Amino acid sequence: MINTLTDKRVSEILDILHEKATADSIQRRIAKNTPGFERSWDTAYMAVNPEEGYLLNFLATVSEAKNIVEFGCSFGISTIYLAAAAKNNGGAVVSTDIEPTKVAGARKNLEDVGLAEYVTILQGDATQTLASLKGPVDFLFLDGAKELYLPVFNLLRPKLIKGSVIFADNADKPDTQPFVEHILGLKDEFTTAHIFEKRAFIAYLK
Ligand SMILES: C[S@@+](CC[C@H](N)C(=O)[O-])C[C@H]1O[C@@H](n2cnc3c(N)ncnc32)[C@H](O)[C@@H]1O
Q1: Which 3 state secondary structure label does DSSP give 170?
Q2: What average pLDDT does this structure show over 88-103?
Q3: How far apart are CA 18 and CA 99, in angstroms?
Q4: Number of Cβ within a 10 Å radius of residue 113
Q5: Domains (range + CATH), the chain
Q6: Mutate which of 20, 74, 96, 169 to test ligand 1's pocket (most atoms within 8 Å of Cβ)?
Q7: SS3 label, residue 160
Q8: For residue 158, is the peptide bond before it cis, meaning its omega torsion is within 30 degrees of 0?
Q9: Under a CB-based contact definition with an 8 Å cutoff, are residues 21 and 77 in contact?
Q10: pLDDT tens track for 160-202
Q11: Which listed residue, 53, 86, 107, 146, has the most CB atoms within 10 A of its CB?
C-alpha cells in the first residue's frame, strides 16, 4: 500500500506547517497576557498535532474511506493528512471553513504538497456549505466550532454509510458534550472510543 505521508515534499512541508502552528499558538498565549489584547481567530492555526494527524491518516486509510468530509480546515494541516489518505484510497476530501484567509491558505498549502486535486474546500458556515453535499460520506472529521459538532453531524447523518468513521477533536470541551453524549446514546448504531485523555473521540458506524 502506498503511503503519501512519507513523500519527501509532503513530510517536509508538514514539518514546516506544524512549526508555524506551534509558533502561532505560543505567540497567542504570550499576547493573551498583554494589555489591550484582543482575541482574533481569523489567522489562528489551532491545528492538530502530528500524532493526531497520523492517527487521522491511519484511520482514513485503513477504513478505505473514499468520501471524506472535514468541518474546519483552518490552514489545511489536518486536510493534508486526510488528502494523503484520500489519494491512497482513490477518494476525495470535501472540507469547509468560514474564514476566507484560511481557505486561501489551505488551498495554497495543498497545492504546495501536491494534493490539491484530492480536495474541495467550501468557504462559509459549515451548516450551510455542507447542507447540499451529495452523499455518501464514509469519514467525518469534526474540528470547527465546538457547539456545531452536533448540528453538523445531524446534517450529515443521512449520508453516513455503514463502516463510516467519525473523528471529533476537542471532545473534552464543554461545548462538544451535546455531540459526544448524543453519539454515546446511539450504542446500537456506533462503537465508540475516547482517546488522548478524552480529547479525541472516535465513533464507528456499525
Ligand atoms: C481548530 S480550527 C481547525 C484546525 C484544522 N482542522 C487543522 O487541524 O489544521 C477550527 C476552524 O473552524 C473554523 N470554523 C469555525 N466556525 C465555523 C463554521 N461555522 N463553519 C465553518 N468553519 C468554521 C474556524 O475558522 C477555524 O479555522
Answers
A1: coil
A2: 97
A3: 20
A4: 22
A5: 4-205 (3.40.50.150)
A6: 74
A7: strand
A8: no
A9: yes
A10: 999 999 999 999 999 999 999 999 999 999 999 999 888 999 9
A11: 86
